[in-house]
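Figure 3 (text version): C-alpha coordinates given as input.
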Protein backbone atom coordinates (compact mmCIF):
# COMPACT_ATOMS: atom_id res chain seq x y z
CA UNK A 1 0.00 0.00 0.00
CA UNK A 2 2.80 2.41 0.82
CA UNK A 3 4.51 1.82 -2.52
CA UNK A 4 1.26 2.36 -4.38
CA UNK A 5 0.55 5.65 -2.56
CA UNK A 6 4.16 6.77 -3.14
CA UNK A 7 3.85 5.95 -6.85
CA UNK A 8 0.63 7.95 -7.04
CA UNK A 9 2.28 10.90 -5.30
CA UNK A 10 5.26 10.65 -7.64
CA UNK A 11 3.10 10.50 -10.75
CA UNK A 12 1.00 13.42 -9.52
CA UNK A 13 4.17 15.40 -8.90
CA UNK A 14 5.43 14.61 -12.41
CA UNK A 15 2.08 15.62 -13.91
CA UNK A 16 2.07 18.91 -12.02
CA UNK A 17 5.66 19.63 -13.12
CA UNK A 18 4.76 18.91 -16.76
CA UNK A 19 1.68 21.09 -16.45
CA UNK A 20 3.75 23.94 -15.01
CA UNK A 21 6.31 23.58 -17.83
CA UNK A 22 3.54 23.62 -20.45
CA UNK A 23 1.96 26.68 -18.87
CA UNK A 24 5.32 28.46 -18.78
CA UNK A 25 5.89 27.68 -22.47
CA UNK A 26 2.41 28.90 -23.42
CA UNK A 27 2.91 32.08 -21.42
CA UNK A 28 6.26 32.74 -23.12
CA UNK A 29 4.74 32.15 -26.57
CA UNK A 30 1.80 34.45 -25.85
CA UNK A 31 4.21 37.12 -24.59
CA UNK A 32 6.24 36.86 -27.79
CA UNK A 33 3.06 37.15 -29.88
CA UNK A 34 2.10 40.29 -27.98
CA UNK A 35 5.29 42.00 -29.05
CA UNK A 36 3.96 42.41 -32.59
CA UNK A 37 0.24 42.26 -31.87
CA UNK A 38 -0.05 46.03 -31.43
CA UNK A 39 2.14 46.96 -34.38
CA UNK A 40 -0.65 47.48 -36.97
CA UNK A 41 -2.63 49.74 -34.62
CA UNK A 42 0.42 51.83 -33.74
CA UNK A 43 1.40 52.30 -37.37
CA UNK A 44 -2.18 53.17 -38.28
CA UNK A 45 -2.50 55.77 -35.52
CA UNK A 46 0.85 57.33 -36.29
CA UNK A 47 0.05 57.55 -40.00
CA UNK A 48 -3.41 58.96 -39.26
CA UNK A 49 -1.98 61.61 -36.96
CA UNK A 50 0.50 62.71 -39.63
CA UNK A 51 -2.29 62.79 -42.23
CA UNK A 52 -4.52 64.96 -40.00
CA UNK A 53 -1.72 67.40 -39.24
CA UNK A 54 -0.65 67.74 -42.87
CA UNK A 55 -4.17 68.16 -44.21
CA UNK A 56 -5.07 70.72 -41.51
CA UNK A 57 -1.94 72.78 -42.15
CA UNK A 58 -2.58 72.76 -45.90
CA UNK A 59 -6.09 74.14 -45.32
CA UNK A 60 -8.28 71.30 -46.64
CA UNK A 61 -11.98 71.38 -45.87
CA UNK A 62 -13.35 69.16 -43.11
CA UNK A 63 -14.93 66.76 -45.59
CA UNK A 64 -11.65 66.35 -47.51
CA UNK A 65 -9.70 65.89 -44.28
CA UNK A 66 -12.05 63.12 -43.11
CA UNK A 67 -11.87 61.32 -46.45
CA UNK A 68 -8.07 61.56 -46.65
CA UNK A 69 -7.66 60.42 -43.04
CA UNK A 70 -10.02 57.47 -43.55
CA UNK A 71 -8.12 56.29 -46.62
CA UNK A 72 -4.75 56.81 -44.92
CA UNK A 73 -5.89 54.90 -41.81
CA UNK A 74 -6.92 51.93 -43.93
CA UNK A 75 -3.67 52.06 -45.89
CA UNK A 76 -1.48 52.30 -42.82
CA UNK A 77 -3.41 49.49 -41.10
CA UNK A 78 -2.77 47.20 -44.06
CA UNK A 79 0.90 48.23 -44.04
CA UNK A 80 1.04 47.42 -40.30
CA UNK A 81 -0.45 43.97 -40.90
CA UNK A 82 2.15 43.27 -43.58
CA UNK A 83 5.00 44.38 -41.29
CA UNK A 84 3.59 42.29 -38.42
CA UNK A 85 3.49 39.22 -40.62
CA UNK A 86 7.09 39.83 -41.75
CA UNK A 87 8.35 40.24 -38.16
CA UNK A 88 6.45 37.14 -37.04
CA UNK A 89 7.95 35.10 -39.88
CA UNK A 90 11.44 36.19 -38.82
CA UNK A 91 10.68 35.15 -35.23
CA UNK A 92 9.34 31.75 -36.37
CA UNK A 93 12.37 31.18 -38.58
CA UNK A 94 14.69 32.11 -35.71
CA UNK A 95 12.93 29.67 -33.36
CA UNK A 96 13.22 26.87 -35.90
CA UNK A 97 16.94 27.52 -36.30
CA UNK A 98 17.43 27.55 -32.53
CA UNK A 99 15.59 24.23 -32.22
CA UNK A 100 17.66 22.70 -35.02
CA UNK A 101 20.84 23.94 -33.39
CA UNK A 102 21.98 25.85 -36.44
CA UNK A 103 21.78 29.17 -34.61
CA UNK A 104 23.82 29.05 -31.44
CA UNK A 105 24.78 32.33 -29.86
CA UNK A 106 28.03 32.47 -27.98
CA UNK A 107 29.60 29.61 -29.88
CA UNK A 108 33.36 29.68 -29.47
CA UNK A 109 35.71 28.34 -32.08
CA UNK A 110 38.85 27.06 -30.46
CA UNK A 111 42.25 27.50 -32.04
CA UNK A 112 45.49 25.84 -31.23
CA UNK A 113 47.44 27.84 -28.68
CA UNK A 114 50.19 29.97 -30.16
CA UNK A 115 52.74 28.22 -27.96
CA UNK A 116 52.22 24.94 -29.80
CA UNK A 117 52.62 26.65 -33.14
CA UNK A 118 55.85 28.30 -31.98
CA UNK A 119 57.30 24.96 -30.81
CA UNK A 120 56.51 23.37 -34.15
CA UNK A 121 58.32 26.14 -35.97
CA UNK A 122 61.39 25.84 -33.72
CA UNK A 123 61.60 22.09 -34.29
CA UNK A 124 61.41 22.61 -38.04
CA UNK A 125 64.41 24.92 -37.92
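Below: residues designed for each position.
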Amino acid sequence: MKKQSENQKGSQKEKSERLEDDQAKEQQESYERLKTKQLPALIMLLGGAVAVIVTYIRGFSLREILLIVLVSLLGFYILGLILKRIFDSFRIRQKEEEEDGTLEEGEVIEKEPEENQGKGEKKAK
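The first helix runs from residue 2 to 37.
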